[in-house]
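Fold it.
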Amino acid sequence: QMHLVESGGGSVQPGGSLNLSCSASGRPFENYAMGWFRQAPGKDREFVGRISPNGVTTYAESVKDRFAISRDNAAMMVYLQMNNLKPEDTATYYCAAPVVSGLARAPEYWGPGTQVIVSS
């Protein structure tokens, strides 16, 4: 199985930035499309973005041009750089794998999540 652990969450003001990290282990990381999801209190979990094994990224419309996903295969890490944060970005953020194109199949592996709070 793949083990995923997120880190880097915290509390920031609107307009601020935060970089989340996801550390993977247990599987050949370079073969997996990785992704980020988020879940606000009382809301369904929603897709944030994904990065393919060869580095092609896809983002939800709500975060496009503000968030950027990257990966370091040697370090088995995936990152979510979040800029110009808005209160509606407040959620628990989850790293997941594999995140297939079009989300035709749910990810098999999830991290425990890291909380992001955006408020004044």
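The CA atoms of residues 11 and 117 lie 5 Å apart.
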